[in-house]
Amino acid sequence: xxxxxxxxxxxxxxxxPPICERMIGFSVPQADEVLVISYEGMHLLHLGNxxxxxxxxxxxxxxxxxxxxxxxxxxxxxxxxLGLHGGNPLTESAAGERLxxxxxxxxxxxxxxxxxDYSMNYTNYSGDWAAATFSPDSKYVILGCPYxxxxxxxxxxDNV
Length: 160
Description:
Layout: E1 4-7, E2 11-14, E3 23-27, E4 33-38, E5 41-46, E6 52-56, E7 65-66, E8 71-74, E9 77-83, E10 98-102, E11 107-112, E12 115-121, E13 131-134, E14 140-144, E15 152-156
Antiparallel strand pairs: 1-12, 2-15, 3-4, 3-9, 4-5, 5-6, 7-8, 8-9, 10-11, 11-12, 13-14, 14-15
């Protein structure tokens, strides 16, 4: 993945371990977890100092994911999914920040009061969908594209 910081703020890029070959979508984070749905199964990412992945290839991609509602039910939890079939990202934080995903220039920006606090270039090697969301607590920003090496997790270095 090509990534360059245009403007640096209080966000750091987390190292993401290999997840899968090609994603169908990923969830809005909840309780420091992100669910990734791929053609290989379900992958639960645990966010923290080190990101870990637990893969369940016993469930196929659409066993637990309802396309109409955009919700995947996994291990007793419901996850809002973003990706190939659209979805509803959280594009505004509690601090009034706004995510701006420009898929033409392949740039993700975090804007507050009409000023760019953070911006990065990314590469979507598939040329297919791209999506970005804040976590509900505004601690993380997740940027996903179909290939796992295009998957980016940003963590806020300080509190909102």
